[in-house]
Design a protein that fits this description.
The protein is an alpha+beta fold. Helices cover 32% and strands 13% of the residues. The relative contact order is 0.13.
């Protein structure tokens, strides 16, 4: 989008919602607003990433902007198998901020670098969770997708800018991604999309609130290049039902 067109749309948006345009960036940078914007941005980035590995002649990938109806979940992304018309639903979830851990003999994931994914419902739809509180049932969606980016940022910081752990703590990730700076590490982790099937990470048919993801050789969280094969498996299962 050209800068002048973007500027005009921002002005129109502010006028529509009576937002003082002189303070638009103060509003956008508010600590209560940024997480919501980043979460919505992740949904669109996930769509772009998925489209790069799927054959558009075989699959239709769409970002859904539907508002959740009573008794139904809001859905992030749909992937439609063109030949059968079967739809696979995808939920994008960010990593838990500050959840990167090198792993030690005392941690739950021992001696392996890992992070957590924020895989629970938002406060606005907790009432749909029934007896599981804010956890998702395995039937809520077919695939969950994430990347490690958010795990690099320290949580509960005071300033507006993101803060990182000391570089010696991140050394294992510098080596893992073969990078040499924080900027390169951010880019590499942003592009490191992983996905899982809910049935593979669930406990008693409900997804843990913050499941763990290993940076290397995780049996449940697969790299995006594996998605076409898994999508076909899901389509076959749905057709069989």
């Amino acid at each position: 989008m050209k800068p002048n067109v973007l500027g005009e749309e921002i002005i129109t948006y502010c006028e529509k919602y009576f937002i003082p345009i002189d303070h638009i960036f103060e509003i956008l940078n508010d600590q209560k607003v940024v997480p919501m914007i980043r979460g919505k941005g992740m949904e669109y980035n996930a769509v772009y990433a998925i489209k790069t590995i799927l054959n558009s002649q075989e699959w239709i990938t769409q970002k859904l902007n539907l508002s959740a109806q009573p008794g139904h979940l809001d859905q992030d992304i749909s992937i439609t198998h063109r030949r059968s018309g079967i739809i696979v639903t995808v939920e994008s979830k960010s990593a838990v901020r500050g959840s990167f851990h090198q792993g030690s003999p005392k941690t739950r994931i021992k001696n392996e670098p890992h992070f957590k994914v924020k895989c629970h419902r938002s406060r606005s739809n907790v009432k749909l969770a029934k007896t599981s509180n804010d956890r998702y049932h395995i039937s809520s969606f077919d695939i969950v997708i994430t990347n490690p980016l958010n795990c690099l940022y320290i949580g509960n910081t005071i300033g507006e800018d993101f803060e990182f752990p000391p570089e010696n703590e991140l050394a294992i990730l510098y080596e893992h991604y073969n990078v040499s700076s924080i900027t390169e590490l951010e880019k590499a982790s942003f592009e490191d999309w992983r996905f899982a099937r809910p049935c593979d990470i669930a406990q008693n048919e409900f997804i843990p609130r913050t499941p763990f993801v290993k940076f290397k050789n995780d049996p449940n969280w697969m790299p995006l290049k594996e998605m076409p094969n898994i999508l076909l498996e899901i389509v076959k299962e749905k057709r069989g039902r």
